[in-house]
Structure formats: structure tokens, C-alpha cells
Amino acid sequence: MDQTVGIGVTGGIAAYKIADLVSRLKKIDLEIVVLMTEAATRFITPLTFKTLTGREVITDLWSDPREYRVKHIGLAEQLDLLVIAPATANFIAKMAHGIADDVLSTLVVANTAPVLVVPSMNTRMYENPIVKRNLAILAECGYHVMDPASGLLAFGTIGKGKLPDVADIYGEIMRLLNPSI
Questions:
Q1: CA 28, CA 25: separation in Å to the nearest integer?
Q2: How far apart are CA 98 and CA 110, in angstroms?
Q3: What pTM was computed for the model?
Q4: How far apart are CA 61 and CA 63, in angstroms?
Q5: N or C: at which end does the chain have fewer Cβ atoms within 10 angstroms?
């Protein structure tokens, strides 16, 4: 497959599950570019994703001052799909309101490829009317929003807000990359 998928990892406990997703996507020869928010690096290290993809992980706009191309613009031109997983309430709000204050959020604003948003958060956060409104804004803008799963969440609570199974996210990525199938 000559397709490039951007994987945007934000700062939620489910960030570690995205390593499995990236591993599965690499097995079918997709080009994977991982971008991480600063908060995401507290849950899983960039080294994990670098090892899985063979590429440097992008964590900030200014990591290499010698680089000619502006990262988020150059990358936006290459992507066939952008996946935000886990998508925290904070990052969903940034996307819904066009806030571009880090490398991942600036890429979202510059991006024209389809976007898959995979929310993952505490049930109370997910059910908050503000979060629901922000997800509706993203859907109205043409973003593909997966429903979170129900089950055991961090802190031992049970409810809706869990990251969907990696197999389900993988299936949705395949559907978006190959809409005729």
C-alpha cells in the first residue's frame, strides 16, 4: 500500500494501546508517521513508536531548527488519513475550535486528508454536554468520530469512554483508506 497514515497520540492512559495499532498497520506496509502531544509522552515514550515505525516521532514544531520544511505543512501534504487516538476531551476541544498550539493541533488545522477521531476518557467527561457538542462540531466538519467502548475504565469505574478495541480501530482505518471495499 502506498499510503501514509498519521497517528496522533494524545495524553490519555489508553495511549499505550496505540503501539499495538501501529504494529498492525506496519504489517500491511502502510507508511506510518506518529505525532505525540507532550502529555502523551508521559504515558508512553516516543522510542516505542520509533522502534515500531523506524521513523522519528514528531513531538514538537521546533525539534530541528535546520529543517527547511515546516513540519505540519509538509506532513499535511503527504497524509492519506490522520488518526487521533486516544482523543482526549482537551484535544477534541482544540480540534473543534481550531486551536493550533502544538505540532499535532497545527497539523489538524493544516490537514485536508480524512480524519478519524477515537475518543477515550472517563465516562463523566465523555457525557459532558461540552464534549458532546465538540464531537458534534467535528462530525459536522466531516471528521469520522468513533464511539468509545463501554467497560472498565481507569480508576476502576465502569462506563462508556473506553478506547475501542484496537481491531475495531484498525477496521475503521481500512474502511477509510479503501472506501470502495
A1: 6
A2: 10
A3: 0.93
A4: 6
A5: C
Residue 36, C-alpha cell as written in the block: 505525540
Cα 61 from Cα 21, distance rounded (Å): 24
**Segments making up each domain of the chain, as ranges:** 4-177
Segment 53-71, tens digit of pLDDT: 999 999 987 655 555 455 5
pLDDT tens for 125-149 read 999 999 999 999 999 999 999 999 9
Amino acid at 33: V
CA 134-132-106 angle, 5° bins: 25
Q: Which are the contacts of 4, defined by CB distance < 8 A and separation ≥ 6?
A: 30, 31, 32, 33, 78, 79, 80, 81
State in words which class domain 4-177 has. alpha beta
Q: Specify which residues 102 forms β-bridges with.
A: none
Decide if 168 contacts 20 (C-beta within 8 A): no
